[in-house]
Amino acid sequence: MNGKNIVISCCAALFSVCGAVAQQRLPLSQAECREMALLHSEGLQQADNRLRQAELDSEIATAAYLPKIDGSATGAYMLPDMDMMGMELRMRGTYMAGISLTQPIYAGGKIMAGKRLARIGKESAGEQLRMARMDVLVEADNAYWTYIAVERKVRMLEGYCARMDTLRRQVDAALAAGMATENDLLRIEAKYSEVRYQLQKVRNGSDLCRLSLCRVIGAELDTEIVPTDTVVVASEPGRLVADMVGRPELRLLEKQVEAGEQQVRMARADALPTVGLTAGYTYYGNIKLGSTIDVGGGVMMPYTQEFRDGIGIAMLAVKIPVFHWGENRKRVRKARYELRNAELELQKNSRLMSIEVQRAVRNVEDGYLLVGTAETGLRQAEENLRVTGNRYAASMAPLTDLLDAQSQWQQAESNLIEAQTQYRIYETEYLRATGRLEQ
């Protein structure tokens, strides 16, 4: 009975281990990779938080138009009593409670400028969120296609090693039969060692790419990722538009110029008069005035009067700056310099981004041509390998020709893998450069 329990326990443990291994295997398409990267990105979450902050700033700026209502309450206990023309003023437990209303009427345009600045900040935060989203998508695509490229090279080199192993056994058998030389076997061994060395390097690179992809999508580092979009088809790009109007970086620079204009208005508002209305009501009590009075016959009696009442007040305040040693004028000039710097920054970066867009367009066009060239080169290398293999089998070609043909096939296959995956990366970069990269 105990032995049966041990067997059952071992089976359960084995099934649990298999289940854990199965959980670590993750089939992943490009769309799923993008979605997981967007959900996991801390930078994107920070950009979203900044957008929420900007929305609150806009609401705060809107509240500056509205009247502000404040309440107050004060209690006081004063000792000693104060003498007021022979009478004692007692403020032991005096209290005051009031409510006030403040309404700005004119602030030199500062309130309107602040509202516009808050709106610009909100729009800028939205563009920053778009830019962060595009950066995440670019990083996800780069990690995904790079991992696919390295995995394809691993399988290609594994197939190459299998061919070399088969050829080595054939040459070894031919050497035993006296139909090959030691030199042929040494050449095979040297080439086989070289291919295995390349395979080990590519496997190490594949594991590093897998770790990078796991980091991007937020998966555990021991997750086995199985890409599903392994068939790369390079479709003709057609006519590419070198337009960057929708690019978030350009819009952010434009928003900086708009913000600079509002900062000039804010600085100018400090030199203009301000008008405000204040109204309030205060209720006070427990203020006592004590004295003695003559009730007749020379008899003096103590007398106390308590004051308990409320008062209302309304004020219209006008503040006019008169002389501040040129401070306000200098602030306006400083704000204008900052505005000019923002305009120059927009001008400089617009040219740089235009060059970047042109480069992205050129990369897509050249990448498509490279894919076609690599496909042609692979077909030629495969045909050359087939013909050379047949000639070698018929003893009409030396071993060196066969090894060269295999090396050319390996290089052609590697070129095609790199060209296809790089073309997909170029497509993503083109969409980002033109501001049209969306999931």
TrEMBL record:
Signal peptide (UniProt feature, chain positions): 1-22
Superkingdom: Bacteria
Subcellular location: Cell outer membrane
Keywords: Cell outer membrane, Membrane, Signal, Transmembrane, Transmembrane beta strand, Transport
GO CC annotations on file: cell outer membrane; efflux pump complex
One Gene Ontology molecular-function label: efflux transmembrane transporter activity
Family: Belongs to the outer membrane factor (OMF) (TC 1.B.17) family.
Protein name in UniProt: Membrane protein
Taxonomic path: Bacteria, Pseudomonadati, Bacteroidota, Bacteroidia, Bacteroidales
